[in-house]
Design a protein that fits this description.
Layout (H helix, E strand, L loop, with lengths): L2 H11 L7 E6 L6 H14 L5 E5 L6 H6 L4 E2 L3 E5 L2 E5 L2 H7 L3 E4 L15 H10 L3 E7 L7 H8 L9 H5 L3 E5 L3 H9 L6 H9 L4 H27 L14 E6 L6 H15 L3 E7 L10 H16 L3 E6 L3 H11 L2 E6 L8 H5 L5 H8 L4 E4 L7
Parallel strand pairs: 1-7, 1-8, 2-3, 2-6, 6-7, 9-10, 9-12, 10-11, 12-13
Antiparallel strand pairs: 4-5
Helix pairs in contact: 13-15
């Protein structure tokens, strides 16, 4: 148990009205996130005399985990009937009524039963934080929205439960729970993670060595980016005397209602901004031909969903109306000190006869008039 991390969180919860969020982040199930969360809770309760309750802790029948729950108050779950099947969920109203100082909420990316007040557990957590209750939670790296394509490509697994990046980047503290891949596979092999009948299948599929190595590397990169960002914020790097950012390396993603790979484009922009530790923006320029009355309902729906996804993965979204897309992009890039412009491949070719008259594609125009930014073209593939 990292006592310094626990001490940091203790200072945070004693100096805030809104609840603080701490996340134990791991690269896979079985690395020990829930155990570390429970050990910290016991320390807060027994040594620091903090009022801690377990709002929802998934032990998955593991005896070591269940033993760590001893002595902690557990808020009973509410039972929800869905299609005739009884399911249990975290009882948010009961936690709000109990109003502890700290509540444990396992598996942050969980999707709630249909009909619940909130669709996702992280939204339940936001309600608890708004009520002034501090939350300690757990999350696996593959559930980050911006990593969807990377995880699928690396592991051939489509992750259904995903969480917006801003939940993690906005957390007050993120702690990496790490074990070596060999140690994790040994835990599985000896029955500490899954029952005997699931061991061989787990080791041969999702928990094979190559998958775990990829996920562990992603987690270490994410933690490094988080630490670097927090250091920059604390040091005030890249600010002028007025406290404004002067970095010329912000990231901008250019959107189109016709782009076929918008989800992948957004996730790439999010990861690029994360690696550079910079702000990032999504710019959609609505031309007269793309006005709401001139595009079909399916295209309008796709565009609305895309811009909502952009907000979920942490972008600041800007929509402009203009007849000149290139000029709008250039003006925005100058004003917001953009250093990287991310675009999808152009889906429309300029006819030869129009080229003879000097017409160029948006990409060609940007390249010709580029003042000081890099243009990144993503590969053309269908979103997962």
């Amino acid at each position: 148990m990292n006592e310094r991390a626990a001490d940091n969180f203790l200072k945070l919860i004693r100096s805030s009205r809104r609840g603080k969020l701490k996340i134990y982040l791991g690269y896979c199930a079985g690395v020990g996130k829930t155990m570390q969360m429970l050990k910290e809770a016991r320390r807060l309760k027994e040594i620091e005399h903090v009022d801690v309750v377990a709002g929802l802790v998934e032990t998955h029948g593991r005896r070591e985990t269940e033993a760590c729950l001893d002595g902690l108050e557990v808020i009973p779950r509410r039972v929800v009937v869905h299609h005739g099947i009884e399911l249990s969920e975290m009882d948010v109203p009961a936690i709000l009524a109990r109003k502890p100082q700290v509540v444990l909420v396992d598996e942050l990316a969980h999707t709630n039963v249909p009909g619940s007040k909130h669709a996702k557990r992280y939204e339940d957590v936001e309600e608890l934080l708004d009520a002034g209750i501090h939350v300690i939670s757990t999350l696996n790296i593959q559930h980050l929205e911006s990593l969807y394509e990377i995880v699928e490509k690396s592991t051939a697994v489509k992750v259904r439960e995903r969480i917006p990046d801003w939940v993690v980047t906005g957390a007050d503290e993120v702690v990496n729970v790490d074990v070596s891949v060999d140690d994790l596979r040994e835990r599985i092999r000896t029955g500490r993670i899954y029952p005997e009948e699931r061991i061989d299948s787990a080791l041969a599929n999702f928990f094979k060595d190559s998958n775990l190595q990829q996920l562990r590397e992603l987690t270490l990169r994410e933690i490094a980016a988080q630490l670097d960002t927090r250091f920059r914020e604390k040091a005030g790097e890249g600010e002028n005397a007025a406290g404004e950012s002067v970095s010329p390396d912000q990231v901008m993603v250019c959107m189109s209602s016709r782009s076929p790979n918008t989800d992948a484009l957004l996730r790439y922009g999010s990861r690029l901004a994360g690696r550079l530790n910079r702000n990032w923006y999504v710019l959609y320029v609505q031309t007269p031909q793309e006005s709401a009355v001139r595009i079909d309902a399916a295209t309008q729906r796709h565009l609305t969903n895309t811009l909502e996804l952009a907000r979920q993965v942490g972008a600041t979204v800007f929509t402009y109306k203009s007849e000149n897309i290139v000029r709008t992009i250039l003006e925005f890039a100058r004003e917001h000190r953009v250093g990287h412009v991310v675009m999808g491949p152009s889906g429309r070719k300029i006819p030869f006869w129009q080229r003879l008259r000097g017409r160029r594609s948006i990409l060609e125009e940007l390249c010709a008039r580029n003042f000081d930014f890099k243009i990144v073209i993503t590969e053309n593939r269908r979103p997962g």
